[in-house]
Amino acid sequence: MKSRKASIITKLVVLAAIGYSMVTLVSLSARIEAAEAAKEALLRQVAEKREQNAALEYSIQHSDDLETIKDVAREKLGLVMPGEIIFYDVSS
Fold first, then answer.
1. Residue 68 burial by CB count (10 A; 0-12/13-18/19+): exposed, middle or buried?
2. Cα–Cα distance between 58 and 12 in angstroms, integer?
C-alpha cells in the first residue's frame, strides 16, 4: 500500500512539474515575442537616426557652398534675388 501511495504522489509531483514547465514556457514565449518586437522598433529608430545624422553631416560639410546659402536664404529667411518676383498660389 505504501508503494502505491508513493507511486501516486510521484505521478502527481511529475504532473505538477510538467504543468509548471508548460506555463513557464508559454509565458517565456510571449516575453520573447514582445522583446523581438521592441528590438525591431529600436532597429527602425536607429536606422532613422542614422539617416538624420547623415543628412545633418552633409549639411554641415556643405554649409559654405553658395547654393546652400541661397537655399537657406530663400526657404528659411524668405529672401529673393534682385529682380526676382515671387508668385503665391491662393486658389487652393
1. middle
2. 69
Of residues 69 and 31, more confidence is placed in 31
Please tell me the predicted confidence (pLDDT) of residue 88: 82
Residues 21, 16: Cα–Cα separation, whole Å: 8
Measured in whole angstroms, the distance separating CA 69 from the mean position of its chain's CA atoms is 34
pTM of the model: 0.55
Q: What is the pLDDT of residue 86?
A: 82
Task: Extract the C-alpha cell encoding 68.
Answer: 546652400
Rounded distance, CA 8 to CA 41, Å?
50
